[in-house]
Each structure stands twice: as C-alpha cells, then as structure tokens.
Amino acid sequence: MYELARSAQPMERRTAIVATYYFIRQHDLDDTFRISEILAHDPDDLVQKAVGGWVREAGKQDPDRLRQYLDNFAATMPRTALRYAIEHLDADERKHYLGLKGS
Q1: Whose CA is closest to 85, among 54, 44, 47, 63?
Q2: Which of 66, 65, 64, 54 is nearest to 23 (CA)?
Q3: What residues does each domain of the chain span?
Q4: Is the pLDDT of residue 32 over 60?
C-alpha cells in the first residue's frame, strides 16, 4: 500500500488509501493515518475525496486521532479532503478547521 501511495498514477494512490478500509473495520487505524499523511497534499480530486473520507471513517473510531491529524494538516491540505474529513464534526469544530485554511 505504501508503494501505491507514492505512485505517479492517481488511481494507484487512491487505491492505497481505499485499501485501508479493511483495517479500519478491524479497528486498526495506523495504516489509514500513515497513508493519509503521505497523501495529505495530493493534487488529484479523487484522491483527496478518498483521503478525507477514510480519515473521517477512522476518526469515528478515534476522534482524538482525527483531531490530531486535522491539527497537523487542515491548514495546508486541499479543501476537498478537508471538507470530507470534517463532515461529521460539530459545527464549531468544522468552522475552526475551515478557518485554519485562511491562516
């Protein structure tokens, strides 16, 4: 998965993060967050959607780890990925993380 995450091909990078869903279902979130760090600034919209969505799903099991990820990347990650990642947070938290984009 890590080799795919570093691929020049966007669909291979997307596959790397999507493949971590198996681990999320097993309550093993390490690979999801590590690969999402590699792909945090990916320029491809479909990769961004997958990164944001899978980080959000992992964050349902470990909200503190989601917030830590967002604290590290929200200001610089693409807006599409950020919007997907914060989708289930409360309104104040969404506003906070979206506000970091302007900083």
Answers
A1: 54
A2: 54
A3: 2-100
A4: yes
